[in-house]
Write a structure and sequence with these properties.
Blueprint lengths: L24 E2 L11 H13 L9 H15 L8 E4 L2 H12 L5 E6 L4 H7 L4 E6 L1 E3 L2 E3 L2 H8 L4 E7 L11 H13 L3 E5 L25 E5 L13 E4 L3 H13 L9 H11 L1 H25 L4 E2 L7 E5 L7 H12 L1 E2 L1 E2 L10 E5 L4 H22 L3
Parallel strand pairs: 1-13, 3-4, 3-7, 7-8, 8-9
Antiparallel strand pairs: 2-10, 5-6, 9-10, 11-12, 12-15, 14-15
Helix pairs in contact: 1-8, 2-8, 3-4, 3-7, 5-6, 9-11, 10-11
Length: about 400
């Protein structure tokens, strides 16, 4: 039985997240401080005990685990023939840009959005086009007129979409997704939906897989993975679902050319165990994390009224508006870390629409959440003493 209150020391384990000073509390990069489900650990231990670690390929059990998991939990029925293995969602994104976008052509992103989208675009000599989400009174929504304007540009060939949205935590409705796909169809744009955070949602509020929406298969394909939901990021395991044969031919070829379409010996073992046997752990994790989210939102509203936490139904990431405190949230983050040891993500790397915001990872024991919020309060008080509102 996994106890989410247990503190597991990750210092000295090669953890990117915890490669920090002794007094620092990292609540930035999106991985959890919880042990992975026991079923995954047992499956990996059994594979280790086998003792032979030669080349391996995805098997039917791996594909069937995806089909059952998304069918049972989200009423999304995957055709196993549409599944392609990849070592990660970011490799899928980068290979997709290389496959579908020529140098100098454009890729639309709906900002603020996961910062690595920009890396995958720019590193492949394409041009990111930022389309800010509509933002009003702490609520985000799709700005369809702005999206259509971006899609209508001749050089826009691809949209990298985040569903549910990281960092704002929004779950999009079938109606919103259908309308987005229709704009893509009209303007000959392909949509890659990054759904890595999909299984992480408020209990009773499941996300809507883009490909579960009727009639979008000609312009939409999706990247899926167990890595965020079951804390398996370091195992490198993901899949892309591509119903459109022409898109699948191009992307699959590119994934293979880039040498990111073959699993390591643990990739499929971990994914299969997580999807087949980890559902109760996932349910408990979501309950725990969203209780922490509610606690954090209430605490900030009560104790740090200068900040505005964004309500969200998905992800373990809390997006916080700091604009009433400062116009330079990056400088605030630097001072926060220097003076309190709290390490959170700056908003600007998520696009221009992210300036004035910070992102806080709540996927850790409640005692660390409480510690982080107290540090955040001290940091805000210190900022106000030194800067006032800037």
């Amino acid at each position: 039985m996994n106890s989410f209150d247990d503190i597991v020391s990750r210092r000295g384990s090669g953890s990117i997240k915890w490669d920090v000073k002794e007094n620092e509390l990292p609540m930035w990069v999106a991985d959890m401080d919880f042990k992975a489900p026991e079923c995954v650990r047992s499956a990996l231990a059994k594979r280790v005990e086998h003792g032979v670690f030669g080349y391996t390929m995805p098997d039917d059990a791996w594909a069937e685990a995806y089909v059952r998991f998304y069918g049972d939990l989200f009423d999304y029925h995957i055709n196993p023939e549409d599944l392609i293995f990849s070592l990660g969602v970011v490799p899928i994104i980068s290979s997709s840009v290389r496959a579908l976008v020529a140098p100098g052509e454009q890729v639309a992103v709906l900002t603020p959005v996961y910062n690595i989208f920009f890396n995958s675009i720019v590193n492949n000599k394409a041009v990111p086009v930022e389309v800010p989400l509509a933002y009003r009174d702490g609520v985000y929504s799709l700005d369809f007129p702005a999206i259509e304007e971006a899609f209508a540009q001749e050089k826009t060939k691809l949209c990298i979409f985040c569903n549910p949205h990281n960092p704002v935590g929004k779950i999009f409705s079938k109606e919103e997704l259908s309308r987005l796909a229709e704009l893509a169809r009209i303007h000959h744009v392909i949509i890659l939906s990054d759904e890595i955070h999909g299984p992480i949602s408020r209990p009773g509020k499941p996300y809507v897989p883009f490909l579960s929406v009727e009639g979008v298969e000609d312009v939409v394909y999706a990247a899926l993975a167990p890595t965020k939901a079951f804390n398996l990021a370091g195992i490198h395991t993901a899949a892309v679902v591509i119903p459109n044969k022409e898109i699948r031919r191009k992307v699959e070829r590119r994934l293979n050319t880039d040498e990111v379409a073959e699993p390591n010996v643990f990739s499929c073992v971990a994914a299969t165990a997580a999807f087949n046997e980890g559902r109760e752990w996932l349910r408990q994790m979501n309950e725990y994390v969203f209780a922490s989210r509610d606690y954090a939102v209430d605490y900030i509203r009560r104790e740090i009224p200068e900040l505005l936490p964004i309500e969200a139904e998905a992800t373990y990431l809390l997006w916080v508006n700091c604009r009433a405190l400062t116009s330079d949230s990056g400088a605030f983050c630097d001072q926060l870390r220097e003076q309190t040891g709290l390490f959170v993500s700056k908003g600007l790397p998520y696009g221009q629409a992210g300036e004035g915001f910070i992102r806080i990872n709540l996927a850790c024991p409640r005692s660390l959440v409480e510690d982080g919020l107290k540090r955040l309060k001290r940091g805000v008080m210190s900022w106000k003493e030194q800067h006032g509102r800037t």
